[in-house]
Write a structure and sequence with these properties.
The chain is α/β, with parallel strands linked by helices and 348 residues long. The chain has a domain of 239 residues: Rossmann fold, CATH 3.40.50.720. Helices cover 40% and strands 16% of the residues. It contains eleven helices and 15 strands. α3 packs parallel to α5 and α5 runs parallel beside α6. The radius of gyration is 20 Å and the shape is globular. It comes from Bacteroides muris (ex Fokt et al. 2023). InterPro entries: Epimerase_deHydtase, NAD(P)-bd_dom_sf. This is SDR family NAD(P)-dependent oxidoreductase.
């Protein structure tokens, strides 16, 4: 089987590629990533280096999903049976100041992926069996009802990033209906872990604490986040990949869209203040911070930021029902693994 993973040098993408290469020995993994400079490219290079040990079972192409000719060439050359689209411009706050990057990658790029999936059936070919793509908990916006369910109405995004992710779900539904392409969207909830994105709070907090700077805790600490460890995310993606929505024909003789959307979250939101306390404890335990570090002196409670929401909380009952899986890595275990990686990567 050939599997195409876009965003292969990214946080989730690289971990997914690793799992596929370790466990599916008869699989060729084709990774596409543009290695942009949104955050430290050295981390992306480090992630890719972990995949080179698998030799010719992993093929890496540097490029952008917004490049239609490149995407079409990849599909023609490798004919992937499964496509996992994780390439996207991430970040809520960055979308306020750099909207062009989101339109290019998240809308135009995703459109090229959908079109390539449609073309994969040309001339009677078997084509793509399953398109799995990253959505986000950001689509829930400022919904007051918790936990967030995929049955909830999500028509009021509070950031352009969220709007592009909801657009991905709508575009995928249209293509599933029109061309009978099995597709599954995954709404990820605050993913963290070793070699994660430096723009995420836990990573930025660590950098600042190490430099002796103050960290800003938004909404005066009254935020709750459904932090999800990266290994749990990858396990969920793996299970979803293996079970595409079933193709069916409706009473009108037309396809019923083989289309699903799931939440992948820890189903256990944590207080941001508890989060930073545990992070501090694990950074001290790993030797990143000294044992006598005065955390209180470096903590600053500030108002909510534009585009942010006070709580994220995933209803994962559908994921449990359909795949027998529920993320369960504790916050302390996940932050301990991050702290140990951080020390190895930056301090040795």
């Amino acid at each position: 089987m050939n599997i195409l993973v876009t965003g292969a040098a990214g946080f989730i993408g690289s971990n997914l590629c690793m799992r596929l290469l370790e466990e599916q020995l008869d699989t060729l993994v084709v990774g596409l990533d543009n290695l942009n400079t949104y955050y430290d490219v050295n981390i992306k290079q480090w992630r890719l280096e972990q995949l080179t040990e698998f030799g010719n079972r992993f093929v890496f192409i540097k490029g952008n999903i917004a490049d239609k000719a490149l995407v079409d060439k990849l599909f023609d050359e490798y004919r992937p049976q499964i496509v996992v689209n994780l390439a996207a411009q991430a970040g809520v706050r960055y979308s306020i100041t750099n909207p062009d990057a989101y339109i290019e990658s998240n809308l135009i790029g995703f459109y090229h992926i959908l079109e390539a999936c449609r073309r994969s059936y040309d001339d009677g070919k078997e084509g793509v069996k399953h398109l799995v793509y990253a959505s986000s908990s950001s689509v829930y916006g400022s919904n007051k009802k918790v936990p967030y369910s995929t049955d909830d109405k999500v028509d009021n995004p509070v950031s352009l990033y969220a709007a592009t992710k909801k657009s991905n779900e709508l575009m995928a539904h249209a293509y599933s209906k029109l061309y009978d392409i099995p597709s599954t969207g995954l709404r990820f909830f605050t993913v963290y872990g070793p070699a994660g994105r430096p723009d995420m709070a836990y990573f930025g907090f660590t950098d600042k604490l190490l430099r002796g700077e103050n960290i800003k805790i938004f909404n005066y600490g009254n935020c709750m986040r459904d932090f999800t460890y990266v290994d749990d995310i990858v396990e969920g993606v793996m299970r979803v990949m293996a079970k595409a929505p079933e193709r069916k024909v409706g009473e009108d003789g037309l396809p019923i869209p083989p289309y699903k959307v799931y939440n992948i979250g820890n189903n256990h939101p944590e207080s941001l203040l508890d989060f930073v306390r545990i992070l501090q404890e694990e950074l001290i335990r790993a030797g990143v911070l000294p044992a006598d570090y005065d955390f209180e002196a470096h903590k600053e409670l500030v108002p909510m930021q534009p585009g942010d929401v006070p709580v994220t909380y995933a209803d994962t009952s559908a994921l449990e029902r359909d795949f027998g899986f529920k993320p369960n890595t504790s916050l302390r275990e996940g932050l301990r693994n991050f702290a140990e990686w951080y020390k190895d990567f930056y301090m040795k």
